[in-house]
Write a structure and sequence with these properties.
The protein has two domains: 5-255, Aldehyde Dehydrogenase, Chain A, domain 1 (3-Layer(aba) Sandwich); 259-459, Aldehyde Dehydrogenase, Chain A, domain 2. With 517 residues, it is an alpha/beta fold. β5, α6 (160-173) and β6 form a beta-alpha-beta unit. Helices cover 44% and strands 19% of the residues. It has 18 helices and 20 strands.
Length: 517
């Protein structure tokens, strides 16, 4: 296997130097394809977090005073660097996650889209806005957007580069400083993102990276940051929500999903099969928006099943840095065991494995075959719990109402999809699904890749949104600045209190009439 240039010792040493650390602890970073050690990085301590927050506050005060368009120039350079270094980024992503090259390139591209979108949107979103005053002409009101201060971005292992950088970019553009805590399994690409931001001219102290166990460093960040952006498990999200609630600071939480795709009887099956394969097995199923439940209408069920199983069997598994593979590895032996346990539980309780259903140590230490199950029922682990691996369950349904009821029978609500040739019908079905993003004739990317539209979950899938206006404005506080030009809000001396009350009531009636007109 070739050794990518991005894994040269000089670059890895530079990334290690970017960790905020004064302690003696280290963490080993493993090449997932082989299970061998890539490098060792220093660990941060709670005192390192405290000092990083202090530096961040100093840098943030100066950054917030910088005009938005001057901040944007840094991110225009960063955008160019993301494209120029895309091969390095993909190498680092593959090394620490084990995903296929195409999926690593897609992850490297996501911050390009995010940065490009907010370069255009931020100046307008952040500009002061005139609002209607209490008394026209007499009172002028301006809505201003103030940065939160120091934002903690706690990013996951499944998309370490995309979900650290793409959460940091709008926070920084809004005038905040950012502390990123990547997962210990995948710190290299987030550190490389910090390196590129520094190269683009981001002032020192505005983007810092700390490394450590979640229960240790995560608590330190949540207890000191002015806002927390978290992507990860529902259990950890609940804990963060409780802590930030106690401190009365905000948070956004993108959590788990048990996402459904509905295939109607008029769907173009070739397109539906291709999208189902992509959305079920992208990143070996380690994608919060991926499809785990496939509902297919009776009339086309057998044909769809046979074509879907055949397409799944044809996927090429590989643990290499090249482009010739469709599916890579799971992140770790632990994840392999958890995915395998879901499949074995279903098999033991009567589900049928139509294809897959076994680990592939001949490919890599943590590889698991793309798996299609039938006969999954309540009581099986994978029926209503998130598997988060290359496993999808097939179900059949009769009416559209039955499909909607089944798809909505989950405590999660992140993503959903509907396939049908009659787009009006498919849209009507889609509008009834309880999920933060819903796609018609696509599995997940149509909604997720539309950067001008908000993306996030309902129910156990979290709260808050990334992308769209909210993806930037959540990192700000709204301030209303009111100026009374003429003294009209206090009773004049020549009117009695009773007469003043009558005048105010008449004025309110007039204001209402004018606004209705």
């Amino acid at each position: 296997m070739r050794r990518p240039a991005a894994l040269a010792p000089g670059l890895l040493d530079d990334l290690a130097a970017r960790v905020v650390s004064t302690g003696s602890g280290e963490v080993s970073v493993t090449e997932v394809f082989t299970g061998t050690e890539l490098t060792r990085l220093p660990l941060s301590t709670p005192s390192n977090v405290a000092s990083a927050v202090e530096r961040a506050r100093d840098a943030q005060a100066r950054w917030a005073a910088t005009p938005v368009r001057a901040r944007a120039r840094v991110f225009a350079r960063f955008h160019r660097l993301l494209l120029d270094r895309r091969e390095h980024i993909a190498d680092l992503i593959q090394a620490e996650t084990g995903k296929a090259r195409a999926h690593a390139f897609a992850e490297a591209s996501e911050p390009v889209l995010t940065t490009g979108h907010y370069l255009g949107a931020a100046p307008d979103l952040l500009r002061p806005r005139r609002r209607r005053g209490m008394v026209p002409l007499a009172v002028g009101v301006t809505e201003r957007r103030l940065p939160k201060g120091v934002v903690a971005v706690i990013s996951p292992w499944n998309y370490p580069f995309a979900l650290s950088v793409s959460d940091a970019v709008p926070a920084l553009l809004a005038g905040n400083a950012v502390l990123v805590k990547p997962d210990l399994l995948t710190p290299l690409s987030p550190l490389y993102g910090a390196r590129l931001l520094a190269e683009a001219g981001l002032p020192e102290g505005l983007m810092q990276v700390v490394l450590g166990d979640g229960p240790v460093l995560g608590a330190s960040l949540v207890e000191t940051a002015d806002y927390v952006a978290f992507t990860g498990s529902t259990g950890t999200g609940r804990e963060i929500g409780r802590h930030t609630g106690d401190r009365l600071v905000g948070c956004s939480l993108e959590l788990g999903g048990k996402n459904a795709m509905i295939v109607l009887d008029d769907a173009r099956l070739g397109a539906a099969v291709a999208a189902a394969v992509e959305s079920a097995f992208t990143n070996a199923g380690q994608l919060c928006m991926h499809i785990e439940r496939l509902y297919v209408q009776d009339r086309v069920f057998e044909e769809f099943r046979d074509r879907f199983v055949a397409a799944t069997r044809a996927l090429r598994l590989g643990a290499r840095y090249g482009w010739g593979y469709d599916v890579g590895s799971l992140i770790s032996p632990r994840r392999l065991a958890e995915v395998g346990a879901h499949v074995e539980d279903a098999r033991a309780k009567g589900a049928r494995v139509l294809t897959g259903g076994r680990p592939r140590p001949d490919v890599s230490p943590s590889c698991y075959e793309p798996t299609v199950l039938a006969g999954v029922e309540p009581g099986m682990e994978c029926f209503d719990k998130e598997t988060f691996g290359p496993v999808v369950a097939l179900y059949r349904f009769g009416s559209d109402d039955e499909a909607v009821t089944a798809a909505n029978a989950t405590a999660y609500g992140l993503n959903a999809a509907v396939f049908g040739a009659d787009r009006r019908r498919a849209r009507r079905v889609a509008a009834r699904l309880r999920a933060g993003t819903v796609n018609v004739n696509d599995g997940h990317m149509a909604a997720y890749g539309s950067m001008d539209a908000p993306m996030g979950g309902l129910g156990l899938s979290g709260l808050g949104r990334r992308h769209g206006a909210e993806g930037l404005l959540k990192y700000t506080e709204a301030q209303s600045l009111a100026v009374q030009r003429v003294r009209v809000l206090q009773p004049p001396s020549f009117l009695s209190p009773e007469r003043h009350a009558e005048v105010v009531a008449a004025s309110l009636r007039l204001l209402r009439a004018l606004r209705v007109r």
